[in-house]
Every structure is written in structure tokens, then in C-alpha cells.
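Sat 14:20. Reprocessing the chain from the morning session after the first attempt stalled halfway. Input below, unchanged.
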Amino acid sequence: MTKFLTYLLVVFPLAVFAQQNTLLTGQVKNHKGTQVSLSWPNLLGDGEEEVTAAVDKKGYFRFSFALDRGREMNFHVGNEQTRLYLFPGDSLHLTLNTKAVDESVKYSGKNAGCSQYLAAYYLTFEDDAKKLTSTEVAAIYAVKKYTPQEYLAYTDKQMFQDLQYLESWKDRLPEAFYEEEKLVISYKWSDLKLIYPSYKYMFTRNTDHPVMPESTPASYFSFLEEMNLHNDRAVHLQTYRNTVREALEFFSKTSLMTQSTPEEVFMAKWSDASRIYRNKTLEYLRAELLLDGYENVSMKTMDDPTHEFLLQAENEELKRYVTERFNIARRLAPGQQAPHFSLQNEAGKTISLGDLKGKLIYLDFWASWCGPCIEQMPHAKKVKEAYAGKDILFVYISVDETEKAWKKGIEKHNIEGIHLWAKGFRNETAQAYNVRGIPRYVLIGRDGTILNNKPPRPSSKQLPEVLDKALLP
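Finished this time. C-alpha cells:
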């Protein structure tokens, strides 16, 4: 019998914050739609909060909502978006032209300098139509060509560039934003340094000279001595939490547990987290470990750690959120009805799960920038060819942030199948299927129920056996 933690929603209510009303007004030119929206990361950054506002015939809109702390947000107009920053109680005004969003966006009003800085940073460092990527993704691919010491020099140079650019804006920024952005930058590049061993191995493992993670010299990680990994005041920053998690990989040495099961690796991390971290940082880290576990580990293994967390953690909002995600993971168990989705295909047509019912469905969540995803695509093509004419659909759901990157990825890697766009990890479809990392696969039966929530990858020799069994009458 499937067990849900419904009672915990009563035991652990939402935390109460001192919130202030915040205003965002503005005008969008050449917008054919009837609304615009604002979104920002949720508690653990694996989903998002969203508010919408109507747009009148002249393009004017008005948001009014409560905000608990300063937040970076995305302003969405059609398929375009731009970044901004709001403090509780701010009154910000925005204008832009949808024909050139990044070049035309202008901000005025209280604390407008924060949003102006974010827009200017994007135009200066990330507005590259050829790359269609961010500085973070560019840094990941830079791992391919650099030795450990060269990569340290590269990331240090990039971090210095970011900090120098921030410094040039200092007189136009509120002190609170300036200090927070320094932390964001510092932790962002520390996180990127920490991923070097695993990504170097990923990029080289199918070559004649694979570079094993353990070959990275211990001296490479000396930068961690200068990092504050017990900064409870930074737990709301995604870059800080990412650094804490990657550092756990280094300290616990779980990357060396190549012969261990996912369950054994999870329990090792769970135990080491308590040994290495403390207080709020530990609570947030353990919550994120649980969410990862719900996606990659058997739910039987997750029961005890979940209950341990709910009994020991002090943050009521984290408890509530973990409870919700635990229940979502339970709903993805084999035999449960697959979550509904309704997404855009390449031609702009909306395709829903109901449109595909009656066929076996092999869902593949991917992104154009995801190395492990792309690595699987040649294998996926062979699997698709092997099952041509059979009662199975191969559906690729992209979590790319932009439509251009999604379509370019399909074309570049010649990916055949049904293509749908989820518009990022925080999309409700990615949330419903508990997609926190990619590639992620789900096998759905002809009747719309989940047959396997962790089926083998296309490269696995076990996949044909799983598909053949599922295709039986």
C-alpha cells in the first residue's frame, strides 16, 4: 500500500514572515499577449513562485504582491524574459520593447540600480546569440580543455572579472544588494571549481585516456580553506547551497564509490553531512539530499531519513516542503497515474499526455547543454530504430530555458522523436515528475500509469528487456 505523509501537513504549518507590499509597474511595447508574469526560485530552488498581471491595450501592467526579502526575479513577456531585483516595499517601473527585450529594457524607481546592473551584466557577458548559454555553462565546457591548475586560473580570472564589474556599479547599488552579490559571485565560482573532477571524467571517459576524478591533486582544493561553508546567513543563496553540496562530494569521497548502489551512496552522504555541517546549513543541505534521493533512490530507503529530518529540523517551511516532495515522489511509484502534462512542440502545437495515451511512452528529460544527456542520444537513436513499428513512443522533454537553445540542440544532435519544451526545471511538468537532475527517464504504460520511474538509460543493456516486458499484451 502506498504511504503518504498527509498528516505532516497539519503538524508542520507554513512559517510566517514579516512581509511588505511591493510594486512593479510598467509598459511593454509590441506585446501581442494579454498578460506578463514574474517568477522567482522557491525555497530550495527546484521550483518557482509566480505572479501574473494583465496587460491593457497600450501595454501597461501593474504587479502588487507581498515579498519577504530581497529577491532576483525573471520578468516574462511572451517567450522572452529579463532579470530584475526587488526588495520588500520597493516601487519599480519597467519599460521594454518585445522586439529587442535585452537592449530596450529600462528600470526606474526605488532601488532600480539592482535591476539595471543585472540587465547590463547580461548584455556585457551573456548576450551571445551564437553561444546561447551562460557564463556558468561556458565554464563547465571549459573543463574539457584545461588541466586542474589551468582551470583554477580560468575560474579565478572569471570571478575577478565579475567582482570588478560589480565594483564599477557600487555607487549605484544599495549596500545590501552589493554585499549579497559579492557572495553570489564568490560561491558561484567556487561551485564551478568543485565540479572539475567529475566533469573532466565525464568528458573523457569514452576516450583512450579517461581522467579519473581521484586524479585531481589534493592541492587543487586548497581554495576551500578560504571559503566559509558554515554561513547560515547565506542559506537563501542558490550558489552557496550548490557550493556546500559540491564540497560534501569532496569531503565524503562518494565519487569514489563506483561499485556502490545509489542507496549506499545516499546513506554515506546523509551521514557525512551531519559530521561536516551544522545548524541552518545542515538543515538546507539535508533537505536537498532528500529531494535528490526521492528522484534517484528507492523510496523504501528514503522513509527513515525523511522521518529523521522531520523530527530534528527546526525550519517549519523546510519541513512542509520536504513533506510535499516526499508525497510527490510516492505518487510517481509504479502503478500510480502518470502526472498530466500539456507542452508545446517544435511547431508550437500543444501536446498533452492524453494525446499520447494508448501507447507505451519512454520519457526522456534532457537539455541542449547537458553533456550526459547528449551522450545518450546516439544510443537513444539505436533503441528507437530497434523498436520502429512497435507500440512505443519516445518523447523528449527539454528543460532548456530558451526556445532557441532547445531547437538548436535538436537540430545539432539530430534527435528524432516527439519533442516538447518544459521551459526549465521549475516548470510544473518538471516539478510533477520530480526532475532535479538530467537525464531523467520515466516509462509510462498504455493506460497512463507509471510502469517504471527509474528505467534504464538508452545505453544500458537492460533497457530492451524492460521495454520488451512492457510491450507484452
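The CA atoms of residues 425 and 435 lie 7 Å apart.
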